[in-house]
Amino acid sequence: MKYECEICHYIYDSETGDPEHGFEAGLSIEDLTEDWACPICGLGKECLQPIEDKTEVPKGELPLNLMVLALTRGLWTISGRGSYSVTREIGRTFLKELKKTDMEFNNPESALKSVKTYFIDMHRFARDMEYEVHEGEVELTVKNCRFFGLCKQLEDQGVLITTCPYTNTSSVALEEVTGYRYRINKEKSGYGHKITLKPVSKV
Fold first, then answer.
1. What is the mean pLDDT of residues 13-19?
2. Is the same domain home to 43 and 127?
3. 159 and 71 share one domain
4. 86 pLDDT higher than 90
5. Contact 110, 156 (CB under 8 A)
6. Which among 103, 100, 108, 79 is positioned nearest to 172, based on CA atoms?
7. Helix boundaries (H) for 36-81
8. Which residues contact 184 (CB under 8 A, 6 or more apart)?
9. pLDDT classification of 115: cutoffs 50, 70, 90
10. Please, are residues 10 and 40 in contact by the beta-carbon 8 Å criterion?
11. Are residues 10 and 81 located together in one domain of the fold?
12. For residues 183 and 201, is the Cβ–Cβ distance under 8 A?
């Protein structure tokens, strides 16, 4: 029987197991330990859903992930630390899409709530995105991100361009409602990231 993680789409096949991550062949989902965690996004086994379709699941990275990895490495090679315009374009593209809805962008709180609604509630990109607005900075905590494995690969290869959709969209949305550009600081936290956004200059 095959099961799919509802967040990152990791496939667990009880017939073949997952030797790469320490799960032997023939180990059913019921036999997985209670502290089992998805090797991609860190969610528990309660988030594994049975796959009724018996179609063979392709091995290796999803083509979309490979495409994003390749494009991001290429952009980093070309732009390096001058890649700020690339990250801003990611944010602007998503913000334009969000503004086609009835979501509100009146102040930092409503802007961040709209970003969370789009990525978490509507599209399940991660388990949660918590946010706090402080004097002089905004903190985001993204938990169990669908793209954590992809981001980790890029970071491990020294590619520091921030392709994170939550970060870039939040930054551009905040820029629009406050009139300030924001500096991004991102740190790994579990199977997600803790992000700090600080206003640096007037637009």
1. 86
2. no
3. yes
4. no
5. no
6. 108
7. 63-79
8. 87, 162, 167, 168, 171, 195, 196, 197
9. very high
10. yes
11. no
12. no
| 73 and 159 inside one domain | yes
CA distance 65 to 151: 10
Residue 80: left (phi > 0), alpha (psi -120 to 50), or beta? left
Q: Read off the CATH number of the domain in which 24 is found.
A: 2.20.28.10
pLDDT tens for each residue of 160-188: 666 788 888 999 999 999 999 999 888 88
Q: Which domain, by its residues, includes 70? A: 63-202
Per DSSP, what are the bridge partners of residue 142? 129, 193
| Contact by Cβ (8 Å): 146, 192 | no
78 shares a domain with 30: no
Q: pLDDT-based confidence at 67, cuts 50/70/90? A: low
Which among 21, 76, 80, 62 has a CA at the least distance from the CA of 45?
Answer: 21
Whole-number Å distance between alpha carbons of 83 and 137: 22
Report the SS3 class of residue 96: helix
Beta strands (DSSP E) in 36-179 are 48-50, 126-134, 137-145
Q: How many domains does the chain have?
A: 2
Please provide the DSSP assignment of 177-188 as one string. Answer: HHSEEEEEEEEE
pLDDT of residue 192: 83
pLDDT of residue 159: 72
Among 190, 142, 180, 136, smallest CA distance to 162 is for: 142
